[in-house]
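Handoff note, outgoing to incoming analyst
You'll be picking up this chain. Sequence as last confirmed:
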Amino acid sequence: MDQELSPATEETLLSSQKNEITEYRIYEKLAGTLSDERNAEVLRDIAQDELDHYEFWKGYTGQEVKPNLFKVWFYFLVAKVFGINFGVRLMENGEEEAQKVYARVAEEIPSAREIVDDEDDHEERLLDVIDEERLQYIGSVVLGLNDALVELTGALAGLTLAMQNTGLIATAALVTGIAASFSMAASEYLSIKSEGGEQDPLKASLYTGSAYIGTVLVLVLPYFFFADYYVCLVLTLAIAVATIFFFNYYISVAQDLSFKERFSEMAGISLGVAALSFAIGFVIRHFMGVEI
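Most recent structure output, in case you need it:
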């Protein structure tokens, strides 16, 4: 196109071109690794949108731009490790700033806003239909993770003050946690089976049990490395809060949900139970004369 652009606008468009061709490569690369043809086709459709964006801006700049290979590999690996939904939505979250840029560009290129908005809406609709197994069973993961956080932080807080011996605390918590993980997995199996839905009861139970026992192992870890049981308790609580933070961040990005409310609720429950259990341990030790 022969429209004369200001230097600032041309620089913005070249930057946009680079971003669009980079995202095109990411979607194409991810689509080529999927065995699920339906999901692969969705990603190829989004890739075509990104390529159309690129060609649209190229029509004004008249220049070819190479993709950011570091960004291509970074988001590709994130998506492969943490899931397509998380990787893609994490990448698309950066589009909010791009929309502000496009709004400024639209002052010189009026058609830019309409074209980009239409195609971004299309991308959002396509992202909503991506079918990923780990998100189908996210409820089972939440069940295992949440129960482990609440029960184990509470148990470790109570045991810490009651026993005051890191070896005994770790052993008692580990035995309790492993037994509880089997119980939770069995309960989830029976629950899903009785509902008669589309979910596989065995897979649901494995997701619940794995989330539970994984959380247990992480929370108990400090008690195997430090002799001071109060230091261990502080580290365990810090690990619990960090786990809640990262898990809720993952969910908020992958499912496009609010982060702050979910994090505050989950952290509040876990730390509240831990404080209550610590108080119970104090009562048992000092008022009932229990010594270990």
